[in-house]
């Protein structure tokens, strides 16, 4: 039998570490005079603006931005302190109409917008990588695969509210925007080749114009480990401790998890201590800091213990306008179960065919809602209108509306 020719392994592309910005690391701009110089330079520059922002998640309360990095050809890189310069809108005005390049833009645009930096157009390198079906879409991974450069990421989770910022951190921050425009060009070429450039443009605009997310109902239910509590009184303790922790964290401008870890909240709810003395016998409250605040935490527990039954939180959480959990569908709505199975199979096959992740083809929530209560009759046009009302983009609707309508016709 003839053997197939032996495959020759393609050597891996050598990765060249990026350790120094091409223009060096400039001083952080924190004065009006320095900002004026940046504005003049960026107004005279050319091409897209590369942008990034650093927060102090895990250290400070909220998601405030503590460093803004911008780069443009002919202008170089600017590192700006948004604490000292909270209004940076003059930069956006100086480059009005210019495309901005960001990686995972949905994470940075809200914070940039708080400082007046609202781009007219966006290119999101992470979203582009997703639409191209790349296995790893983190900035360092995409840069390595497409450009052959190695970006160090050891400072990605540091406390960016630190002042002054260490030189190593600033070097890291400058390098993150140094590669973005070249990365954008490489991704844009691949999108064009794959016939996905218009898809990407619609996705980028959706991210740019996205409304802020609505506040979560009962945010205390996100405490890790709450799902193990099967008693409404214990849930009330979680809620009361969460509220006390949040108030303390807000006043002190400290990340809530540093004030009181989730595991401590759940441990207290399980133990239901009656006194501060009993509370500090719990391992998570035995440390010096928690012992010092034991009276505060015990007051929160006492408040929960004193609630009437009618005031206790429900085990099931707040009501939702969406469909129930899919595991309940077979009993409540067998037809919807069949529709969901067929729709998921269709989307999965299309995802594989197009090399686009399932979640980027259509938001899972929109798909569940459509399958639970589809328009009647479920035609290509009516399904398209339904998806459009749930925020689907036209490229997604064009791919899926007729196919989903056909799948529903075949599966009840």
UniProtKB/TrEMBL annotation:
Residues 310-331 are annotated as: Disordered. GO terms for molecular function: 3'-5' exonuclease activity; nucleic acid binding; nucleotide binding. CDD domains: RNaseD_exo (cd06142). Residues 231-311 form the HRDC domain. One of its GO terms (biological process) is nucleobase-containing compound metabolic process. PROSITE patterns: HRDC. InterPro entries: 3'-5'_exonuclease_dom, Exo_C, HRDC-like_sf, HRDC_dom, HRDC_dom_sf, RNase_D-like, RNaseH-like_sf, RNaseH_sf. This is Ribonuclease D. It comes from Xylanimonas ulmi.
């Amino acid at each position: 039998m003839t053997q197939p020719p032996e495959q020759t392994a393609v050597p891996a592309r050598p990765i060249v570490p990026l350790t120094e910005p091409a223009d060096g690391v400039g001083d952080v701009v924190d004065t009006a005079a320095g900002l004026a110089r940046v504005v003049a330079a960026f107004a005279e520059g050319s091409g897209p603006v590369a942008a990034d922002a650093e927060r102090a998640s895990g250290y400070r309360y909220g998601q405030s931005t503590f460093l803004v990095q911008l780069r443009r050809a002919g202008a170089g890189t600017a590192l700006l302190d948004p604490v000292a310069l909270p209004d940076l809108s003059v930069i956006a005005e100086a480059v009005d109409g210019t495309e901005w390049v960001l990686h995972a833009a949905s994470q940075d645009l809200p914070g940039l917008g708080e400082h007046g930096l609202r781009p007219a157009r966006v290119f999101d390198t992470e979203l582009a990588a997703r639409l191209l079906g790349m296995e790893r879409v983190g900035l360092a991974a995409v840069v390595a695969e497409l450009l052959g450069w190695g970006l160090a990421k050891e400072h990605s989770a540091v406390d960016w509210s630190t002042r002054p910022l260490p030189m190593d951190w600033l070097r890291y921050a400058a390098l993150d925007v140094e590669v973005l425009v070249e990365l954008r060009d490489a991704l844009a070429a691949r999108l064009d080749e794959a016939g996905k450039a218009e898809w990407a443009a619609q996705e980028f605009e959706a991210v740019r114009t996205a409304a802020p997310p609505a506040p979560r109902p009962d945010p205390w239910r996100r405490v890790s480990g709450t799902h193990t509590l099967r008693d409404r009184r214990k849930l009330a303790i979680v809620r009361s401790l969460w509220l006390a922790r949040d108030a303390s964290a807000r006043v002190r401008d400290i990340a809530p998890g540093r004030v009181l870890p989730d595991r401590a909240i759940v441990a207290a709810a399980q133990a239901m201590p009656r006194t501060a003395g009993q509370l500090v016998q719990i391992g998570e409250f035995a440390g010096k800091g928690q012992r010092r605040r034991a009276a505060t935490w015990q007051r929160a527990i006492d408040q929960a213990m004193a609630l009437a039954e009618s005031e206790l939180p429900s085990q099931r959480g707040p009501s939702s306008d969406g469909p129930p959990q899919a595991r309940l569908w077979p009993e409540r709505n067998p037809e919807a179960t069949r529709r969901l199975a067929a729709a998921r199979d269709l989307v999965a096959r299309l995802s594989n065919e197009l090399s686009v992740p399932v979640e980027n083809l259509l938001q899972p929530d929109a798909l569940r809602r459509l399958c639970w209560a589809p328009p009647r009759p479920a035609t290509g046009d009516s399904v398209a209108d339904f998806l459009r009302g749930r925020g689907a983009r036209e490229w997604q609707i064009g791919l899926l509306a007729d196919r989903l309508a056909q799948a529903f016709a075949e599966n009840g």
